[in-house]
Amino acid sequence: MSSTERITFRFPFMLAGLDRPHHPGTFDLITEREALDVSWPAFRLSMTILLTEAGGVEAVPITRDELDAALRRDSEQR
Q1: Do 33 and 64 touch, CB atoms closer than 8 A?
Q2: What gap in Å lies between CA 11 and CA 68, rounded to an integer?
Q3: d(Cα 47, Cα 63) in Å, to the nearest integer?
Q4: Between 8 and 2, whose confidence is greater?
Q5: How far are the Cα atoms of 4, 40, 55, 60 from residue 17, in angstroms, in the given order?
Q6: How far apart are CA 5 and CA 8, in angstroms?
Q7: Phi and psi for 70 in degrees, rounded to 5?
Q8: pLDDT by residue (tens digit) across 6-53?
Q9: Which residue(s) pair with 45 in the sheet?
Q10: Quick one: which of 19, 74, 76, 78 has the most CB atoms within 10 Å?
C-alpha cells in the first residue's frame, strides 16, 4: 500500500545522497507500507521523495527521521 503527500521546503536543503543543496519547492513524498510475513500485523515503511531538477525527476530514498530533521532545519531558518 502506498500514499503520496506534498511537502514544501522554503529554503535550499540537503539530504543524504545529494552532493549539493537542492533548491526549495514543493515535492511529492511517496510512502510505501509493505506487509511483513509474520503472524501479527507488521509493516516495513519506505519513503521516497521525488525531486525535480532541470525538467527531470530524481527519486531519492529517505527515512522519516531524515525528513523530519530536514523539515525542522527548514522551519528554523529565517
Answers
A1: no
A2: 15
A3: 6
A4: 8
A5: 21, 34, 20, 8
A6: 10
A7: -65, -40
A8: 999 999 999 988 888 999 999 999 998 888 889 988 888 888 888 887
A9: 33
A10: 74
Beta strand residue intervals within the chain, DSSP E? 2-9, 25-35, 43-53, 56-62
Structural domains of the chain, count: 1
Q: Which domain holds residue 6?
A: 2-77
Q: Each residue of 48-73: pLDDT tens digit?
A: 888 887 788 889 999 999 999 999 99
- Residue 76 — pLDDT band, cuts 50, 70, 90? very high
Residue appearing with cell numbers 532545519? 73
Q: Using an 8 Å Cβ cutoff, are 19 and 43 in contact? A: no
C-alpha cell read off for 51: 525531486
> Dmax over Cα atoms in the chain, in whole Å?
49
